[in-house]
Amino acid sequence: MILFTATYDSREYSHIKEETKVRLYDLGKALALYSRDYGRYPSSEQGSGELVGYEKRYVRYLIDSDAWGNRFIYLEPPKADMPFNLYSKGKNQTDERGGGDDISYWKVKPELDEAFRE
Fold first, then answer.
1. Of 4, 3, 12, 23, nearest to 91 (Cα)?
2. Which domain range does residue 51 map to?
3. Less Cβ around it within 10 Å: N or C end of the chain?
4. Is the pTM of the predicted complex or chain greater than 0.90?
């Protein structure tokens, strides 16, 4: 009997992780624009669906999932030190509330702000 398991080589994992970071960054920027216009962030119940629509064109196409195909986690209100919490459950696909291997918008933002500034 042969048993097959799904594995990622390091290059594929790196590509998936980088794609997820860019998707998080784009969604976070759209949330910031929404906040600028409405003076608040969408509630957890409203979610990222508030960012698209006829009058609310913050993103052309809503990509609200990571490169593994799992929906991003969006919480508002989040912890006291951030205006919202947005993250991917990461490679292990376990919700660690933004810790562990989860990929958090607030960890990605400084890195990509710098990359896009160059």
1. 12
2. 10-117
3. N
4. no
